Each structure stands twice: as structure tokens, then as C-alpha cells.
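Sequence in, structure out. First:
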Amino acid sequence: MVEVQACKLSLPRPFLSSSSPITSLLFEPRSTSLALMHSDSSFSLYPSLSPFSPPSSQSQAPTPTPTPTLVPPPSSSASFLLLQNPRPNSGCHNPRVLFVVAAPHRAGAAVLFRFYVLQKSQLFTKAEVLCSQRDLEFDRKSGVLFNVNHGISIKLAGSINVFAMSSVSNSKIWVFAVKMAGDDGDGGVVLKLMKCAVIDCCVPVFSISVSGELLILGEENGVRVFQLRPLVKGRIRKEQRESKSLNFPNGYDRKTAGVEANMEVACNGDLEGRIDLNRVSLKRRSVRFRQDSSEWSACYVAFKGKKVEHLKSMMPSFIPIKAVSIQAFAAKTFLILDSDGEVHLLGISIHHPGSEITCHMKLFANTLKVQKLAVLRDTSTRGRTIWISDGFYSVHMMTVSETDASANDDENDSEEKLTQISVTQAIFTSEMIQDIVPLAANAILILGQVKFICICNFLKLVAWLFLFSGHLCSRPD
């Protein structure tokens, strides 16, 4: 029998924040940072939470709560990402946590990006951003202005040094690279932002995931997989440029009719301009291609079938099934939730960067019509934890052991080795479940529809249950 204890968890309210209810959650596991989105589209950022500490007794000093940061409205979408090896020459190798928020600007005529970096003082502060491309402009008061229409809906997805933005109205997906550039002299940081790729969408995209080396788009009846590295690093391009007279100190004047220059786009690595051996200045250009292009070794894999459907096979079924959520399960294994409430296991195999992608899709057998899916990536254990909810009053914790969903060269030999799938815990709530976020292998954050968030932490004998109001409590005296 599992014992449950409950107590209130009071979080400080950000300065000048409203008391708007919470509508969604974002959690960054490395720094244990939490972002709460409110109904007025503002965010409350809480760094380095310690939700698993038991409540202190009256004789003990209360556990200090982190200082929150308010991200004022409006906000359309947001994502956490990590800045890996931000300054290699400084000896600092620990990733920095970055929070990116997108919002409409100038009545929707542009998209506004705001960047918040988690400082060593455990406080999120706004960052200065360097950007040199024509459609990107930094404004100190507001942020980075991206000169494209906002439209009715945009979505952000982030990973390490990279984030992507999809736009329904523009039918496009943009891939951006970001890195640390230095300090601003006042204790803040300076970032560099580069637009690396533009994907022109020819079919609707319902979800997007950026994870490690992969960009995955949720489409009708399946998903499309791209290798992220070629999109970020770019490709070799050749340009013919006419050169001017070159006057040398010895009086020798050499003129050439033209110079053929090799251009290498390196968005995520060297963001500086380059000059080739012929002293020709090379400008960085983002790559652009269609969603169904075969140029970037993309792969489309359909639901409910073992045969991988490549880019030319895009015939929708009579009643299309949408891929509404994509969750990273391992480095090259993902869980896909479709609009029918089914969960699919996607295995991806890439022999070397730039080579053809091989995919395999398997349907999870379950009787629950899933509405919410959350996955915890924990490489320290052989078993992986999956949390599913029907969107009503229950959450189920599943453990998957000995998973090998990679695809072999021969499609007929592709197989999954699922040693065990077991439901180990079930949680029942008094309110309808609006959102779930995994915190650990035995803990999950649950957002109720009306007025509560609970953190359920299952131990061998004891389970701690922390409750606090969706209308954030003020700091206790």
C-alpha cells in the first residue's frame, strides 16, 4: 500500500503579474525550470524548483523559493532550449538554459522573439541578440523582430542550440540557430541568432519536434523526418562574382573576369563571415526547399503499417489521422500521438550524416483513448517511463523495458523488441486534466482545468502530493 501526504506549495508571484489562471506548463529537466503560461498569455518563469523536498517543520527554516521572472503578454508559443558549449575558449562547458517566446508584433505584421537566459544567480534575464540577416532586427526594448506575418497560429520547438517555428498562415517552417556571443558588461549575456533553413509546406503540419539530430513534422496519416544537421550547417554553394582590380604594392595590377567561390553555410558553428583564398567575401544564406523535396534525405512514414512511405507517397486516406503530438523517447526513438487517441512507436536509423533515413512505425496496443502524452527521457535506467491520460480524471504511468525500435537496412527484418510494457501506477484527480509534464521517473506535474496543480511523487512506500492553486499563491511571511 502506498501512503500519500499532501501540503500546499506556495510559489512567489512575479512582480507586476496578474492573477490569471494557468493554462499550460513547460518544464526543463536539466535545470528543473518551470514555465507557467497564464490565460492572458503571459509567462511566469521559475528557475531551479525543488518540488520533491518534504515540507519543513515549524522548527526548521523554510526552504527558499526561487525568484520568478514575468514574461509580459502577448505570447503565442514558447520553448526551452540548451546552449551547448557557449564559449569554448573560456573553459565553460556547462550548457546554459534559454527560454524563447514568440508573439505577434505591429498588429501581427511581424513576429517578436524574446530570449531569456538562466544566469548563475538562478534568475532568468533578458538577453541582447546579434543578428545580421535582412528579415531579423534586434530592438533593445522589445526583442528580435522577424519580418514575417504572424498569422493565426505559430508553434515553437527547441533542442540544443536550435529551435524551429511553424506557421499555419504562412505554410512555412523556419529553423534557427542560436549561440552565446559574450557578455554585455552588465552581468547579462549576448546571443547570436541565425536563420538557417526555410521549409515551404505543401501539406498541413499539426505538430513539430526538434530533438538531437532530427526534425520531425506531424502530418496527416504519418510523420516526416529530416536530418537536422544538414539544415543547420547548410551546403556547399558556388557563386560567380566579378572581381575588381587588385592593386599590389609592387605596382603589379591583376584583373580577372570572374572568380568562382565555394560558399559553405555554417549557421550553428561559425556565425562570422568568411573569405576564401581569392579574397572573395562569402555571405551566409539560409537554405530553402519544399516539404516534399527529396534533396535533404527526408523520410515520410505512415501510421499503422510497417512499410515506409517515402516522399512521393503522400495520398491521404478518406478520413485523415493527424499526428498531434511528438515526444522524444530515446535518441532515435519517438512516441507519436494521433488524433484518434492511438500511440505509435517510431524508430529511426541513420548510418552517417547525410545518408538516407530508414524508419519503422509500430502501433502501441492499449484500450485507453489517449488525449495527453508525456515522456521522460532517462538514459540512466533501462526502463523508460510514459505517462498517458484520457483527458478526464486519470493519469497512467507505463514502464517500457528493453526497447529497440531501430530499423535495419532490410525493411523485412525491421522489428521492435519490447520486453515488457506495464502500467505501474494510476492517478485519479478531482478535476479534469488539462496538461501533464513528467518531472522524474516517479513524479509528474498535473494541471487541473480549474484551480490546481499537483506534483505526484511515487516512492517505494511513500508518495508526496503537493497542491497549490492555479491562481498563484503569494510568498508566505
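Second:
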Amino acid sequence: MGGLGKTTLAKNVYDNKKVVERFVCRAWITVSQSFKMEMVLQNMIKKFYKAMKEPIPGGMDAMDEISLIGLPKKYLEDKSVDDRGRIRRCKVHDLMREIILKKAELSFCHFLGDEDSSINGKFRRVSVQKGTNTIAVETINRNAQIRSLLLFDMDAVPMLLTSISFTNFKLLKVLDFEDAPLYSVTEDLGNLFHLRYLSLRGTKVKMLPKSIGKLQNLQTLDLKHSPVDALPVEITKLKKLRHILAYSYQLNTEGRFLTASGVHIGEGIGSMLDLQKLCYVEANNGRGLIEELGKLRQLRRLGILNLMEEDGPSMCASMKYLQSLVIFSKDDGIPNLQFNLAHRWRCLLGFACSKT
């Protein structure tokens, strides 16, 4: 389509007075059909610096495309910076926008459903919402770069779990099985070294595999409303674990609260120094558990079940950093327990004490 005057038209726009007034600096660049992005960036940057009468950075001719992209950031439009001088948001010129989009080829999340069960291109997050097939499962299995796997389709879960090996997803960080018809978790769960979030909420899983102790980067374990009633001793190996959510409620036909249940935790929980939230734990181990919990200086929220009145004083003495406390007790001395604890922890943001 040569000879139509496109270059002349573009040059007239470039030199237009109104356009010139809108920009601090400009660069006129000629690009051929077979161009190299590095050369285009080098040419553009040189003209920017020349227009601003600033010295051209040394070694620019040896820089790669990624390094060159960072140089013209001072010419971004409408920059807003924080108190440290860092750019928080900005508008960019069209050319820079195209370069950024080219570098952001990874899809944020790929959705699998009835209308689209195929997977094309690169992606790091997969959301299974409706329906799936063997081809989709095989494709998921081949994509080792997946970081998050979210399952929302109940019918698809059994097929996925019997066909997918956790060994293939060593980079996975989020695994959410909430309300899935899942009855067990295999030992290869321990291969997910980078996993940070694991949810078995509302599943039928009754026991966690011992390999969970290998998840050294796990930060959140969600077992709400699942049949899990005890945590394996290997759980104490998870030094980065911050949140253990493990409780369920029983309601009557009118929707009123009847009772609550939590999990049993053995010795060693006192070594999990990053733990911030523990809801709910059974206090059947008595003062041994209270002493272990007293070592957790980061613990801010605690839910405890079956606490006896005689354990109240030791609990008050050892746990000084709590902000929220929920207690369920079968002890007839709960009024005294409630008074003693409330009197000791006046600074608590939330406090509840109930009889089950």
C-alpha cells in the first residue's frame, strides 16, 4: 500500500503545533517491515535523551530488549509516585503499550467449561467451572507452569484427581478443593513444595497424608466443615504456616447453633512460631497444649474447645498476645472461667465463651 501518503500524513500530525504542545519530548522513528525491536528501542531512546538535552546512557547498544524497555520510564505520561519516589501507576505511549502487551503473553487465568474445554497458549492459573474431558485433563497435566488450580465443578473433580498427578505441578502455589466430592488426598501432595494455600473445606477428606510435612512453604490450611478431626504430627514441620482453619458447626432444624468441633493437635505445635490463627483446637491435652500455645508469640486469634476451668489461669499466664479468643467448654464452671479470662484479657478485640 505504498504511495498513499501515509508517511506524509503521519509527519504532519507529528509536527502539528497542538501535538507538540502536549508532549515534553518526541521521537520520529522509521520502521521497516523487517525490523529488530532492540534497534527500534535504541533509536527511540537516543532521540528522547537528545530532545531533553541529556547524555545518552553508556552501553545501551549492548542491552537486550528487556533492559531497553526500562530506560524510557522517565518519559511515561501522567506518572504518580509514592513517598519513596517509586512509580505506582502511569499512562504510556502507544509503542510502549504494544511492547508491554507483547511481554505479557501469559493469560492471567484460563477457564474450563462446557463451551470451552480446550487450552491454548500459556497460562498459570486454571479454573474448572463446568464440564471437562480427557483432552482438557491431559492438557492440564502437561502444563507444569500452572501456579493455581481452582475446582468449582463437582462432577469434574473425581476425573481430574484420578488423572492428574501432583508430581507434575511442582510450581503450584494455590490448590482449592472447596466443597468438592473428595474423599482422600494422595501422598504425592508432598511434591508441591511451593504450595502456599491448601483448601479442603467442605470435602469428605477424613485424614491428611503424612507427606503434608513436606509443604515447607504452606501458609494457609483450610479444613473448615471437613471430617478431619486430627492433624498429623508432621504438621509441626511447617514452620511458615500462619493459618489453620479447622472447625465445623452443628445446627438444629431451626438453624440455631448446637455444638462445634475442632481438631486434635499433638506435641510440637509450640515450634510453629509463625502461626497467627488457630481455629479450633481441642484442649483435651490440658496444660500441655496450653504451654505449647504459650510459645506462639505471633498467635493473634485462637478458638479452643473443651477447655476446663482449672486450665484458665495457666492460659492467662502464658498467652499474652491474643487479640481474639473463642472458647467452647463442657465444664459447669464456665461462668468463673469466663470471668477470669475476660478480666485478664481486657485488651482483646473479640472474646466469646460458650458452653457446648
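Remark: Residues 323 and 346 are 10 Å apart (CA to CA).
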